[in-house]
Amino acid sequence: MYPSGKYSSRGPALIPRMKTKHRIYYITLFSVVLLGLIATGMFQFWPHSIESTADWTLDKRSVHDAPLVRLPVSSPIPERGDLSCRMHTCFDVYRCGYNPKNRIKVYIYPLQRFVDDLGVPISSTGLSREYNDLLSAISDSDFYTDDVTRACLFIPSIDVLNQNSLRIRETAQALAMLPRWDKGMNHLLFNMLPGGPPDYNTALDVPRDRALLAGGGFSTWTYRQGYDVSIPVYSPLSADVELPERQPGPRRYFILSSQTAIHREYRAELERLKEENGEALLLLDKCSNLSQGAASARKRCYKGQVYDYPQILQESSFCVVLRGARLGQAALSDVLQAGCVPVILADSYILPFSEVLDWKRASVVIPEEKLSEMYTILKSIPHRQVEEMQRQARWFWEAYFSSMKAIGLTTLQIINDRIYPYAARTYEQWNNPPVVKWSSVNSPLFLPLIPPRAPGFTAVVLTYDRVESLFRVITEISKVPSLAKLLVVWNNQNKSPPEGEKKFKCPECTAIDGLSLDQTHMVERSECINKFASVFGTMPLKVVEHRADPVLYKDDFPEKLKSFPNIGSL
Amino acid sequence: MQARKKYVLLGLCACCWLVLFYWGGGVQLRLLRLLTRQRGEVVRPWPNWTDRAFLPRYAHLDELQTDPGTAESPRQRRQAWSAIYKDSRCRMETCFDFSRCRRRGREGFRVYIYPSEKNDHVSESYRKILTSIAESRYYTSDPREACLFVLGIDTLDRDQLSGQFVPNVDERIRGYPLWNDGRNHLIFNLYSGTWPNYTEDLGFNIGQAILAKASLNTEHFRPGFDVSIPLFSKDHPQKGGERGWLVRNTIPPRRKYLLMFKGKRYLTGIGSDTRNALHHIHNGKDIVSLTTCRHGKDWEKHKDARCDHDNLEYERFDYQELLHNSTFCLVPRGRRLGSFRFLESLQAACIPVLLSNGWELPFSDVIQWNQAVIEGDERLLLQVPSTVRAVGNERVLALRQRTQMLWEAYFSSVDKIVLTTLEIIKDRVFSHISRNKYMWNSLPGGLLVLPEYSTHLAHFPFYYLGLGISPGQEFTAVIHAVSPLVSQSQPIMKLLQVVSKSKYCSQIIILWNSEKPPPNRSKWPPMPVPLTVTDGRRKTTSRFLPHVAIETEAVLSLDEDTVLLTSEVNFAFLVWRSFPERIVGYPPRSHFWDPLKRAWGYTSKWTNDYSIILTGAAFYHRYYHYLFSHYLPQSLRTLVDRTSNCEDILMNFLVSAVTHLPPIKVAQRKQYKELPSPQGTKSVPWANPEHFNQRQECVNTFANWFGYMPLVHSQFRLDPVLFKDQVSVLRKKYKDLERA
């Protein structure tokens, strides 16, 4: 009764109030709708930015939905590319700026499908699987920014990995159409197969202004040192074939040649080597009885005997990687994957990531002219070194060759190291495989210095609750001439430290020096050791059998002539 | 009615929204992105294409594996190259005649110096360069066996306004029959071009010669062909050279000033852009950047409003004091790209902050400069303070130590600069017998790592820790025998027994240096390890020859009359495994500076310190045999052979020069001087005063060749852990060592 009474008492006033409430409600609704319409219109038709980001959607889309861009015939073509470009002349460093993380910001242009005036695409393949992998790896990385104004480096989504599938002039025009192109400044292009018949240029032929080129197959004449980045030619076998890592050591064959299109002059040379050294060499070629296609790419033959490729590479200590029309060869990647030491014969070739990788520890580079001396040269390498090279080769593949992601991020890291050289990765970080990183010791004080005596030393004394012995230690140590400072760290939880010069008496704490004899204490310390070793992942402590004594320690020699006569007298 | 209206209206609204959403997916997205960005999330920008699995490969496997090939024969191509890639496009493959260096290794790499003509003026710096080459192990006086040629004409200063400028170089070199358009020639230069532009022009055509030049610009640098060298003053020492100024590491490593510069301000001309702006970063507190206008003849003509004030401030600070007390030193370009300041700050352990765009850093082929300097950008001068402030203490510590390592390895003397240049070229010529980057960039530096010995890191005594490995478990004993074998009770017999009993001994080599021929095999006692007798041809230096028979990393060098116990040998070997780059042994000696004679002295007295361990009983790495025989000059080895003395001192000099550390003495049961003199054999040589005087002289001759005194004193000895402690003998592993 009571609540209903309360309800009814307010009843009459309810209806008119609801009416006004409705009115407000309608007005609000209308204004919301109106505002929504206006806002939508503004968003839709406002010239918000030059970049059209409208094609981004949350739902999954096909590459064929990417907007089509028609290139006018008269569209400008960039300049050929300046061989004298260096970071300080052709790169706008102001875009990268000072940055507490020392990391460059990379922007990727949205995908567009460029066609010429007649509607013919500029590339026969469009976006390739590899380039897509590369771009999505970069966009997932820390380097990525979607804010074009904050970007230091721009990556076009125009796929130029393989020059064969490109229409050079139109591709160049498409590059120049990019909204932030600005003479190619701070733009990075990835290309693995440069040049075309008949001379096969060693760098991408597409005119590209000042753009940086990450190219696979640079020669020393086209590579702009400190500007371009030499990258590997990615081998799809890296993803398709799993080759387990093999223990370094001698293999069935000493030298293996597995490339199929070796110039006949070189093949003759290899045959001659084979004649001289017999079984140690295995010279494989295409299988003549197999039809072209994927199957033939995975087989090699020697005198009718069929071998699986790339598995056969694991059976040899050294594998020949000869230049062909191009300097960069995908075979290098296969060889490294197999843990076979590449023997690279490609004069003037800039090895992949040579700016940071020490190829001398993972490969043998022999001038093409000396192909006939290959066997002697390789035989002179110590066994243990060959093993180290095998391990190193495999590690290079794992870290820098195995996927488009590895290739892309390594390239960006190299550019990053140039822009923030004071935060650059060290030789050891680039070149040491994880197993060496774990076991090696790189002391932060690596320079052998014998410091002068004059500044003396600082004594740091930990008190615990052993006050007696503390005083003894302090008295003794303060007699030492080279003591510069005495620092007492008070970790006694039972007493507060004595004040000023006042003497500190402790009648009850006579000879509690037996702390180290305590059994539980020892157990605790053993546990500590185990805990620390597990955190370190290895036992860093080393056991030695020596200790340092003064030169004349306990020698039969007049005590007064000894520098440190009292040692060992306690 | 009202209700229907309401529903219609609501329906309309819903339709509107639907339409809007259908048309404007972008709105939604943009709103979403706006919202998410505020929450700090990044929208995944590269779409996860639905059809990514159907995307084509960038190239077919066939296309990748089957190279298109060219009709051109590789041999023809290589020949065509040398016609195309000449002069500014020179590379070793096209401009260098490898056939002149046919013989392998050191034998193949010979350097010839053109004789200088009588009325030629040769500057002091160039004279030093030529002396370094002439005294190096690569020098030859026979042009027919030379691989590399160096001009006698001084080409260091090619500034036409300079007094050192040599005219008519072009005509003269063209007259040389060996010139051959500069092929296989090496040209040194420190200064090129002149006021106002200071171009890289040398004033003569170098053709296909290799250029070793200071202040090289990356644009003109022919990678893998030219060598960039540092600018050094005419007072730079010929050899040895001052050590770096860092005597101890301080932690935290920051010094009084963070960053300093003291130098000229250019009001006009090339290089003035940077030099004119340096005063902006001066804050008078931790950043001291001082410039003066007072240089050149007519500075007052160009002087501006700042000059007087700046000149005053400039006088307030001392350059040397700043060098000592600054963490970073600004090294901006001058008129040319390189400056003296670079080497000065390197030596002073003041981390160089380079502002010299386009400078190809010295020996950039092999040195990893980003581990020793801060490479700034002239365009970002104003960012330099915040950049150096942000460098962490750990990195400062590492950078600073590396400046010292590089200074001492490659720059402290003209000898080192010239030898580094030669070694870089040699590594290119014999590319598969060359040093890797690790060898060049870690202690003790590339000049002391001879690739002819091995190209494998684990074969050297320096890299065990860095590679995470430890030295082998065995040693080879090399016994130096000078007395003929007459009785079975001779000390050498006892020694053979003792050493062969060690579980770490893998083999024993007897180096037979007696006048009598070596005895029959059957005369030697039977032993558990292989015994080899090698003829030393009665040369004292033969004991340090890199005998192929030595297969272990550790060598135990012994005199025939050494008296040792097996446990002493074992203990010393275990100590050596902890210090594989040093000499570990027994009898110590010492050197000292004698102020009266103004010469170094040598003493065998028992003292509280030592700097030499006699190699009559010592462990060391076998690599030192190789260094002794191939790194040291023939003159010193001849001295040793002539006097049959001092070989042990020389070995100690060598090892200490490499490590900058003293040798290590281990506990020994008996003192050397108490040894019973060998009966009926030769008289003890060290009883002879002449022998002792020779050793005094040796110390001085050696110090002279090294250019400084490499020996370092030590005050400690390594004893077994319980050595002479008051505990039961049963608990001691090396109890034999304590028996009197």
TrEMBL record, chain A:
Location of the Glycosyl transferase domain: 457-499, 501-553
Chief localization: endoplasmic reticulum
Pfam families: Exostosin_GT47, Glyco_transf_64
Transmembrane region(s): 24-46
One GO CC annotation: endoplasmic reticulum membrane
InterPro entries: Exostosin, Exostosin_GT47, GT64_dom, Nucleotide-diphossugar_trans
Protein's cellular compartments: Endoplasmic reticulum membrane
Protein name, as recorded: Exostosin glycosyltransferase 2
Organism (species): Sphaeramia orbicularis (orbiculate cardinalfish)
Phylogenetic classification of the source organism: Eukaryota, Metazoa, Chordata, Craniata, Vertebrata
Automatic annotation (TrEMBL), chain B:
Pathway assigned in UniProt: Protein modification; protein glycosylation
Main location: endoplasmic reticulum
Keyword Nuclease attached: no
Gene Ontology CC terms, in alphabetical order: endoplasmic reticulum membrane; Golgi apparatus
Subcellular localization, as worded in the UniProt entry: Endoplasmic reticulum membrane
Domain Glycosyl transferase: 475-723
GO terms assigned for molecular function: glucuronosyl-N-acetylglucosaminyl-proteoglycan 4-alpha-N-acetylglucosaminyltransferase activity; metal ion binding; N-acetylglucosaminyl-proteoglycan 4-beta-glucuronosyltransferase activity
Listed cofactors: Mn(2+)
Gene3D superfamilies named among the record's database cross-references: Spore Coat Polysaccharide Biosynthesis Protein SpsA, Chain A
Transmembrane segments: 7-25
Entries under InterPro entries matching the protein: Exostosin, Exostosin_GT47, GT64_dom, Nucleotide-diphossugar_trans
Catalytic activity from the UniProt record: 3-O-{alpha-D-GlcNAc-[(1->4)-beta-D-GlcA-(1->4)-alpha-D-GlcNAc](n)-(1->4)-beta-D-GlcA-(1->3)-beta-D-Gal-(1->3)-beta-D-Gal-(1->4)-beta-D-Xyl}-L-seryl-[protein] + UDP-alpha-D-glucuronate = 3-O-{[(1->4)-beta-D-GlcA-(1->4)-alpha-D-GlcNAc](n+1)-(1->4)-beta-D-GlcA-(1->3)-beta-D-Gal-(1->3)-beta-D-Gal-(1->4)-beta-D-Xyl}-L-seryl-[protein] + UDP + H(+); 3-O-{[(1->4)-beta-D-GlcA-(1->4)-alpha-D-GlcNAc](n)-(1->4)-beta-D-GlcA-(1->3)-beta-D-Gal-(1->3)-beta-D-Gal-(1->4)-beta-D-Xyl}-L-seryl-[protein] + UDP-N-acetyl-alpha-D-glucosamine = 3-O-{alpha-D-GlcNAc-[(1->4)-beta-D-GlcA-(1->4)-alpha-D-GlcNAc](n)-(1->4)-beta-D-GlcA-(1->3)-beta-D-Gal-(1->3)-beta-D-Gal-(1->4)-beta-D-Xyl}-L-seryl-[protein] + UDP + H(+)
Keywords: Disulfide bond, Endoplasmic reticulum, Glycoprotein, Glycosyltransferase, Manganese, Membrane, Metal-binding, Signal-anchor, Transferase, Transmembrane, Transmembrane helix
Matches recorded under Pfam families: Exostosin_GT47, Glyco_transf_64
Record-annotated Exostosin GT47 domain positions: 107-390
GO biological process terms on file: heparan sulfate proteoglycan biosynthetic process; ossification
Membrane topology field: Single-pass type II membrane protein
Function: Glycosyltransferase required for the biosynthesis of heparan-sulfate.
Similarity comment: family membership: Belongs to the glycosyltransferase 47 family.
Protein name in UniProt: Exostosin-1c
Source species of the chain: Sphaeramia orbicularis
Gene encoding the protein: ext1c
